[in-house]
Input
Amino acid sequence: MRYVAALFYLAVASGLSGCASINYIVNEYRGVEVREVKMAEDTYRVFDKPAESKMMVTSSLGSAAGQGFAKGLTFGAAQTEPPKPLFERAALQFLTESGRPGCRVLDAYLLASPQWEVKYDCSPVVAAAQPPSSARSARPQRESKK
Output
């Protein structure tokens, strides 16, 4: 009986965490314009929030429906979701297409399959400073052995 009760509580907790993800998506991305980015494997939908340096990237509606169908058909046994790097590449492609080619992805988090939140940074990369030329020439020279 304890086993059944534990499974019940696990199922309720999983369901509630799913609701929390959906609530976050609705509250965070409501009213954000949907844009598309075409990639070789799919056309992704992008909900960009440039003021917050983040976006939600999702599979196309057709792909998402197919993924859900395949997952349901196999009772969740089949891995149907595209991997994280595909969503990161779609985010970078979107940033390039929207005039921000120097941006980089910091991380991506699965919100609810197949919806990923991607955090990015568009600040210029600062190169490491070179020591002044006088400091470089002041270094001791190694003697060559012959």
In short: Residues 2-29 form the longest helix (28 residues). The chain is about 40% helix and 25% strand.
